[in-house]
Amino acid sequence: MAQKPIREYSAKKILAKHWNTYFPNFKYPFSSALVHSGDDLVEQSKEKNWLKKTGLVVKPDMLFGKRGLNRLVLLKNKSAGDIDLKLAKEWINANSQKETTLICGTKGQLNTFIVEPFCNLKKAPEYYVAFSVENDCDLLYMSAFGGVEVEENWDSVKELRIAPQSTDTELNELIYNNTPKEIENKKQFADLVFCFYQFFKNLHFSYLEFNPFILDGNTVHILDVVARIDDTARFLMNQAWGDLEFPSAFGEKEPTAIEKEIQTMDENSGASLKLSLLNSEGIVWTLVAGGGASVVFADSIANLWGASEIANYGEYSGNPSKEETYCYTMGVLKLMTAQKDPKGRGKVLIIGGSIANFTDVAKTFDGIIQAFREMHVQMKEVETRIFVRRGGPNYEIGLKNIETAASQLGLPIEVHGPDTHLTDIVRKALITQKEGVLV
Q: How far apart are CA 314 and CA 294, in angstroms?
């Protein structure tokens, strides 16, 4: 299972979209705005009139918790009372793009905020419910003490294991019989938790936490959500999830446009296409077939060249089509040729992989060759040397074709089949770099 965190706003938007299906006996007054600046908030207020008429709550929506403890929640103004649109705009502008250090030590810039109506239900109990997926069951957590109090009262949290074969009747009984004693309306609370679980399972979440939420009659006020989804279900859930964004975690490097393009390709392909830019000034670039081989090559490059010279990390595997391999290669080559090495050294491109079981090496190499033909001028400008080691179906044809094409394009290349050790081309590339000739 590939678990990916999503924004609080995204989780609430999905919840609101499917609320009537899963929660027929409850109401959810979903009002939420995702903004990047104060001007963005004012623009959204033209359509979301509630932003002008109610007290507001503002907080970052960037995949980190304990926002209150980090003093990053705008809730009430001591002198003016409720936070209005003007104060919310000023606070967002003051904090947007601001370098911030969390209490955990993570540093980053704030750039995305969620704005919602302030829920003014005095003395209303705040509850906690969370679900997670384990190997042999699902886990359910419930507590009558939500919000920051849940950690202080963790001994009061009920933990239930839900077996895969549980019927709805059995699950209802399990939840009801374990509803915390402090909750007055056990039946209503248990019914709501049951609905939450059905939503959690059917929408393919891997973790879902409501902390806190308030149950006011049959109206559910959800103050905070933490969510992760099972990304392997993307092909099933495209319509159900809608236009779902997978942002980088706070403090992480924002992916380049090319990395985002490869990620989109991966999500819409039966093959595996992964690409991460590690160091744009590194001189060793890779086109590696297979996740295991990616680790081996990265480790070998780090040992022989130094980790700072690894420019990218990724893989193309699972028998990608010629077109997919071409697009993936174009992405790597565009990143590789974007700038010359500051030290005047040439770039090294390693095309490697173990012995494929079913990937047609010749077919994928045709995609790489097509990219070479379009990018050979730029590759020459950064003095690219190419080293290839591959085995598998039609590898002889593939090696011959790529060697011939590169030579015709004036690109220095050295090719090896499965008789050469998997990572021996890393050593050969290093020797070539030092001596300036192919060996």
A: 6
CB 420 within 8 A of CB 427: no
CA distances from 276 to 29, 186, 255 (A): 40, 49, 8
In this prediction, residue 409 carries a pLDDT of 97
Token pair listed for 50 = 């509630």
The first and second tokens of residue 412, run together, are 């220095």
CA-based nearest residue to 283, from 223, 216, 237, 345: 345
Smallest CA-to-CA distance from 119 within 17, 220, 7, 18 is with: 220
Q: Are 12 and 30 in contact (CB under 8 A)?
A: yes
CA–CA dist 325, 369 (Å, integer): 10
* Tokens found for residue 10: 């995204």
CA distance 432 to 284: 12
C-beta separation of 402 from 388 below 8 A? yes
Q: What is the dihedral of CA 197, 146, 152, 58, to 10 degrees?
A: 110
Rounded CA separation 431/439 (Å) = 8
How far is it, in rounded angstroms, from Cα 71 to Cα 249? 19
Cα 224 from chain centre: 20
Peptide bond into 212 cis (omega under 30): yes
And the tokens for 350?
């390693």
Q: Answer yes or no: are the C-beta atoms of 391 and 418 closer than 8 Å.
A: yes
Residue 426 tokens read as 């890393």
* pLDDT beneath 70: ranges in the chain: 1, 77-81, 149, 356-358, 434-439
Distance between CA atoms of 145 and 76, rounded to whole angstroms? 22
Cα–Cα dist 287/301, whole Å: 13
Neighbour-count burial of 120, counting CB atoms closer than 10 A to its CB (0-12 exposed, 13-18 middle, 19+ buried): exposed
3-state helix, strand, coil in the chain (%, to 5): 40, 25, 35
What is residue 374's three-state secondary structure? helix
Neighbours of 161 (CB within 10 A): 12
Nearest residue to 244 (alpha-carbon basis) of 258, 224, 225, 227: 227
Compute the distance between CA of residue 184 and CA of residue 190 in angstroms, rounded to an integer: 11
pLDDT of residue 170: 95
**What residues pair up with 276 in beta bridges, in sequence order?**
313
Could you give the C-alpha distances from 415 to 294, 304, 321, 412, in angstroms and in order? 18, 20, 22, 10
Distance of CA 271 to the CA centre of its chain: 18
Evaluate if pTM is beyond 0.70. Answer: yes
Write down the pLDDT at residue 439: 40
How many whole angstroms separate alpha carbon 312 and alpha carbon 185? 56
